[in-house]
Write a structure and sequence with these properties.
alpha+beta; Alpha-Beta Plaits; 2 domains; five-stranded antiparallel β-sheet; 7 helices; 35% helix; globular
Length: 201
């Protein structure tokens, strides 16, 4: 799997969402794009975030090179308030089933990590315990770039249940591991998508 993250300031939220939802009919159905799905939304400070999944980098790049994709991307860039960042991730890890289009709340976590393998292990180890302790978490994705920059998405059943779950005490061993690992992460920021929307192939 290959993940591309697109993010940038956009105050024309309704227009951008309408354009994003038009991609399938205007671009996605005109060829073998390798598109698997996407998670999209806006933060409280008008940051648009799109986390788009493809079968592999080759198909994603071939899609980007198509004239119809270029035209559509031009319309998207015209709606943005400023520069847009792209993060391309070949190193992808899924938690549980990778999330769900039924999610009512999605949290995006970005930062830099010195030990990507440890972060991937934390995403995948003991998911049965996680599901038992935090049933509101219904999956996630983790994309890591070669320099250790990571983008993690966590899908929740709802924001209310997510906030309640945050107040729960973690098992002691898990908490110690988590706190030690947090100390090794840098430049971490959280982006909350209160009203996410989704596309699936």
């Amino acid at each position: 799997m290959f993940i591309q993250i697109i993010q940038g300031k956009c105050t024309k939220q309704d227009e951008l969402r309408a354009l994003a939802e038009s991609w399938r009919t205007q671009v996605g159905e005109t060829g073998d794009t390798g598109f698997l799905g996407g998670t999209y939304g806006f933060t409280d400070d008008d940051m648009f975030v799109g986390v788009v999944r493809f079968e592999n980098r080759e198909k994603a790049m071939a899609n980007s090179a198509r004239p119809e994709q270029g035209a559509w991307s031009g319309r998207m860039m015209a709606l943005m308030d400023g520069p847009v960042q792209f993060h391309d991730c070949d190193d992808v890890t899924l938690m549980m089933d990778g999330g769900s289009d039924r999610a009512g709340f999605v949290q995006i976590i970005q930062g830099k990590v010195d030990d990507p393998d440890r972060l991937k292990a934390m995403m995948t180890q003991d998911t049965e315990m996680l599901h038992r302790e935090r049933p509101e978490i219904i999956g996630g994705t983790l994309g890591i770039e070669p320099d250790g920059t990571f983008t993690e998405t966590i899908a929740f059943t709802s924001e209310t249940e997510a906030r309640a779950g945050e107040q729960k005490e973690m098992p002691e061993a898990a908490r110690a591991d988590f706190e030690a690992f947090q100390a090794s992460m840098r430049d971490v920021k959280y982006m909350d998508l209160h009203h996410p929307w989704f596309e699936s192939a």
